[in-house]
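Recap from last week: sequence in, structure out.
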Amino acid sequence: MRRKSFFFKIKSTLRYAFCFILCASLMFLAACRPTTNNDVSPSEPEQSNETFPTKESDPETNDTDVLKPSPEVHRGYPASREECYVMAFTGNESLNLNPFAEEGARFPVDPTGFYQPVYETLFRFNPKKTDYQGVLAERYTVKKGSVSIALKPDAIWHDGYALSCQDVMYTINLHLQLQTSLGQELSKCISDIRVPDSLNMDIVLYGDIPDGAHRLMEVLTHLLILPRHTWQPVVGEHLTLDAVRALAVVPVNGTGVWSYVGSDAYSMTFSLFKKNDVPENTPSFLVLLKYAQKELSARALACGVIDFDLQGETLEELCAESPLAIQQKEALLSPVYAGERIAGIAINTKSRPWYRNRAFRQLLALFGRAEVEHTVYHTKEQRYSPACVFALPGTVDRLDQHALKDLLVPFSEEAVEKLMEEAKLTRDQESGKLLFNDESIAPLSLTYPSDDLTAITLCTNYASTCSSYGIVIAFNPVARNVWQDKWNSGDYELIYMPSDVDETPLGALERLRSIPSLIENNSIGQGELNIASFFEKEQAFASTFNQDILPYMEDMTHWLIKEAIYIPLDAGMVEYGVKNDAVHRDFPINTLFSRDVFVGETVVYP
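Predicted structure tokens:
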């Protein structure tokens, strides 16, 4: 007789239990198998209103090996010295990876958009063309009530995903949600955003904002675009701005030339991402060393330990110091300039009676033209144009130079005497002091930030010229926040007033609007000041996007030269660092900035 198997010998209850355990095990194994085509993956986004962009399929962009340090470590660098461009940045409090950090001179992620090695903006303003140029955007078109933007089709994130209008819209909405300073400006001009496809978008403006297109483009030159697929899971919809700023770890995933690898207590490392956008021999890695003092980073630069010192000592300061004994050979050092700026003095005509006299203001402006050699800024000609009262040097160069020459009276003793006579200034025979309407002119109060060496240098030189002609300048150095408050409130006689770097036409107009003489359209305290003409030009500015903006810039420049309520003291490119060419002479240093970069004349140190 055939023997029964063990399975049939056991009791029925045990057989049922055994079957239950077997079925449960099979179900567990099925649940753990690889995902099917119905699951969400990075290459196949979920088909819904919340889809994320697809990854770029180009094998070169998907090669994440370039994002990782070399397994072989060379003196703490991710590769050999020849494969690393080493730079220094002084002040760890200014090192930043958070796009929502409080504004300031921050690197490598600058919330103002000045530095763009990692994250990038849609546009940058180019003073030489007097227009906005695309960074991530390919082009823009201003229509009645809207601005259309087309993105560059080949722009991708460092993790391989393609840039899309969803990222731009997410960034805008996030700033609106967090109520950042940029978000507050956007809320004043944006009515709606329409996205017909992944590379094109129409931003609809409020109809009651006449200069809405200018305001939008101004913001888009500072707005760092963020990837929705990495930032949305981190921020969500409930965090406040303070909470986002306080995040210990933020995703660092940009579109710039340099991709963030990592950092420690001593350095930050970036790898080259956009190989096609740089010269063939560009190093594979960018290494940022952290220095506590400018003197230390300057010494390291002179000895060839680093290639570039960003926002450290100026070349003049460095060359004034004695070399170290360990410096084995002479160093070839060059200043690096980025962007243009105007620095000057604004006059509050409502503060004192003599400021209401046009000839007196023109006399003060003439003293500013006594010396037009550069003191702090740079141009190839080593001179700046005193016509830089509104537009930056790159724009002024495009204006009618003959017309400007007729307006700008060169500094001379004859010109000084003529304006003194027109201003009805006389000199007291006993004291030698200047009199205005037979009354002594009190010292002119000049307010400036006490920690700004550029302001101190320019204001001191200007005061020296004025004093030689009997006009005394009383310095009023104040803390930077107090200076800013006085600028905004109009609580001053004269105030040091620099422009932003690569200031847009709207930025220049906003700078002028802050001068009390131009805030309200009334005659109180304005005297000989054609304020009506200013407001006409201000209203004409709103429609300049539909035509060439250069005639408007020229018209405003002529008016300001005539009215003399702003005295330019210097204008040109700003020095942001010094580089040593010993290891990497042709490094594309412009990849760190969003502005035009100029490398000055090389000097031998020591």
